[in-house]
């Protein structure tokens, strides 16, 4: 995509962003980007102005989930102008995928190149006024996370939401994530268990394909709040794959109770 200069009356960077929340996961494929998107849509539904900063170099998938494709990114005096998903400008998105010629290329980049890009990217987006900025990070705990934190200036980060699947809990990936938060002084706002059981579309019975409840146990063990569980939903994955709006699928679901708990602690 092309990068163009545009004069916009957006104020720079994070000056007018009230809350910054990181979304973390121990490994890829657990639904971190899906949950980030759901949280953003639920916050917007609750009347908040929301931004998503998609820093997942390994797979910037949020533009696809929000059906914005790969738009041209414009620059104003105070930085990159985010892409708005609606006319009311209530949901702003900036994805590292917008700035990369070939998103698959980053996989072969060395650490310093990745961290340099993240550093520039995190501090150079002209968000304007936002209630909450959700940051979709790469999976794991890497130099890239430290680069995100350094450039968000730690005191601006309100905390992190950890996404896990029931089976990932036992692998220790989430525990490492918790240790990372403790060491870097990031408050854990809570844990969400995704892909927690499968609700049969025919009889509505929930089958626990993987063991269930690991997220809740882990929350207890680590003194974190358990924000809820989201079941595997074939309709959700179909909507995501086909770029359809999936807001109606979770209007009554966990994500709403999760955001209300998070909102209370912010
Ligand atoms: P991550 O960001 O952790 O790598 P994604 O959010 O990209 O994971 O999700 C990985 C895949 O799993 C996607 O194809 C997504 O559609 C699917 N997925 C995630 N959560 C669910 C769910 N609760 N029900 C059905 N499919 C899901």
From TrEMBL:
Cofactor binding comment, as recorded? Binds 4 [4Fe-4S] clusters per heterotetramer. Contains two stable clusters in the N-termini of NUBP1 and two labile, bridging clusters between subunits of the NUBP1-NUBP2 heterotetramer.
The compartments listed are:
Cytoplasm, Cytoskeleton, Cilium axoneme; Cytoplasm, Cytoskeleton, Microtubule organizing center, Centrosome, Centriole
Which Gene Ontology BP terms does the record give? Answer: iron-sulfur cluster assembly
Cofactors needed by this protein, per the record, are: [4Fe-4S] cluster
Q: Where does [4Fe-4S] cluster bind?
A: 200, 203
Q: Which CDD domains match?
A: Mrp_NBP35 (cd02037)
Q: Which GO terms describe its cellular component?
A: axoneme; centriole; cytosol; nucleus
Which terms in the Gene Ontology molecular function aspect does this entry carry?
4 iron, 4 sulfur cluster binding; ATP binding; ATP-dependent FeS chaperone activity; metal ion binding
What PROSITE patterns is this protein classified in? MRP (PS01215)
Question: Which InterPro entries does this chain map to?
Answer: Mrp-like_CS (IPR000808), Mrp/NBP35_ATP-bd (IPR019591), NUBP2/Cfd1_eukaryotes (IPR028600), P-loop_NTPase (IPR027417), YlxH/NBP35 (IPR033756)
Q: Does the keyword tRNA-binding apply?
A: no
Would I find Metal-binding among this entry's keywords?
Answer: yes
Q: Which residues does ATP bind?
A: 26-33
* Key words, A-Z: 4Fe-4S, ATP-binding, Cytoplasm, Iron, Iron-sulfur, Metal-binding, Nucleotide-binding
> Which family is it part of?
Belongs to the Mrp/NBP35 ATP-binding proteins family. NUBP2/CFD1 subfamily.
Q: What does this protein do?
A: Component of the cytosolic iron-sulfur (Fe/S) protein assembly (CIA) machinery. Required for maturation of extramitochondrial Fe-S proteins. The NUBP1-NUBP2 heterotetramer forms a Fe-S scaffold complex, mediating the de novo assembly of an Fe-S cluster and its transfer to target apoproteins. Negatively regulates cilium formation and structure.
Q: How does this protein assemble?
A: Heterotetramer of 2 NUBP1 and 2 NUBP2 chains. Interacts with KIFC1. Interacts with NUBP1.
What protein does this entry describe? NUBP iron-sulfur cluster assembly factor 2, cytosolic
Q: Which organism is it from?
A: Echeneis naucrates
């Amino acid at each position: 995509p092309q990068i163009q200069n545009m004069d916009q009356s957006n104020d720079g960077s994070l000056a007018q962003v009230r809350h910054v929340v990181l979304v973390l996961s121990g490994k890829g494929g657990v639904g971190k980007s899906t949950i980030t998107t759901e949280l953003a849509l639920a916050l917007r539904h609750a009347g908040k102005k929301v931004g998503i900063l998609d820093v997942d170099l390994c797979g910037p998938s949020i533009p696809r989930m929000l059906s914005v494709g790969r738009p041209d990114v414009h620059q104003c005096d105070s930085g990159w102008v985010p892409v708005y998903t609606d006319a009311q400008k209530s949901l702003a998105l900036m994805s590292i995928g917008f700035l990369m010629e070939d998103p698959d290329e980053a996989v072969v980049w060395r650490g310093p190149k990745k961290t340099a890009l993240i550093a520039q990217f995190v501090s150079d987006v002209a968000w304007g006024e936002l209630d909450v900025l959700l940051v979709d990070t790469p999976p794991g705990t890497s130099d890239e996370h430290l680069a995100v934190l350094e450039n968000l200036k730690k005191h601006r980060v309100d905390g992190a939401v950890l996404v896990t699947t029931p089976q990932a809990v036992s692998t220790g990936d989430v525990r490492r994530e918790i240790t990372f938060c403790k060491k870097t002084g990031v408050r854990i706002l809570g844990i969400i268990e995704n892909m927690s059981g499968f609700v049969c579309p025919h009889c509505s019975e929930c089958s626990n394909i993987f063991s269930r409840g690991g997220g809740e146990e882990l929350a207890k063990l680590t003194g974190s709040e358990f924000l809820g569980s989201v079941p595997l939903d074939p309709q959700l994955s179909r909507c995501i794959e086909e770029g359809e709006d999936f807001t109606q699928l979770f209007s009554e679901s966990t994500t709403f109770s999760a955001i209300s708990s998070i909102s209370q602690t912010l």
